[in-house]
Amino acid sequence: MHKPLRFSSTPDFSAFFERAGTVGAIVVMDVRQGTVDVHNPERAAELFPPASTFKVLNSLIALETGVVTDVDSHVLKWDGVTRQRPEWNMDHSLRTAIAVSALPVYQQIARDVGLERMTSYLNRVGYGTGKITSENLDWFWVLRGFRISAHEQVQFLRRLYLDDLPFSLKTIDAVKGITILERNEAYTLHGKGGWTTDTDPSTGWFVGWIERGNEASVFALNMDIHDPSQAPARIGITKSVLKALDLM
Asked: Could you tell me where the DSSP H helices lie in 25-93?
């Protein structure tokens, strides 16, 4: 049994958001102790489209169903359509696709998984709120009709870290491996960003976890994005918060 969650503090990290010209929320949870630090509790409970943070779960489903057989050797072919982001206009492995957040790759994965299996896994994991249909199957995660809160994101990530999701350990370990953003002697940082323009203002996410030896904390940040220049602040604010909490 996992320890029950305990809300340890509601720190004021407004200055980090204000410097980026935005507002937002962040939840940081100690995986083992279950203690939670929450900035902007009201917003942390609010539902937003998960955007590309859903690619973490989409990767788990892809591997578990066999739609993708391996994170490195399985080639996900470019469909030949030239898009604005040049890094999307090429073949990918799952590892490189998640690194550049290749939307067309994950749209094809969703189509190959299919509505029935996708809906089943969403229900089994308990991820998000909203109706998935054949019309939005390859797009639902960026639309207002499917949403998740920062609190729910950290619950999902905590379960992922603890191998407590309805996927094989092989699948879980593979996805943990492709979400590593930084690794050094002090810590390993896993993460995935997200950004949807289907809200007003646009919504940006950065979610993941940081490991320090046998200790780990999961986190989920969301914030308003009024201008593309604010997008890098998703990671910058998160790192500032982790440092303020002596986690980084």
From this structure: 41-44, 55-65
C-beta neighbour count of 23 within 10 angstroms: 13
Catalytic residue among 8, 9, 14, 52: 52
Query: What single letter denotes the amino acid at residue 81?
Result: V
Structure tokens at 220: 């989920």
Q: 62, 53, 22, 55: which is closest to 39 by C-alpha?
A: 22
Q: What is the pTM of this model?
A: 0.94
List the domain boundaries for the chain. 6-244
**Cα–Cα distance, 111 to 156 (Å, whole number):** 23
The H or E element that residue 70 is part of is none
Q: How far apart are CA 24 and CA 43, in angstroms?
A: 7
Look up the CATH architecture of domain 6-244.
3-Layer(aba) Sandwich (3.40)
> pLDDT of 155-206, one tens digit each?
999 999 999 999 999 999 999 999 999 999 999 999 999 999 999 999 999 9
**Residue 51, helix vs strand vs coil:** helix
The verdict on whether 52 is a catalytic residue reads: yes
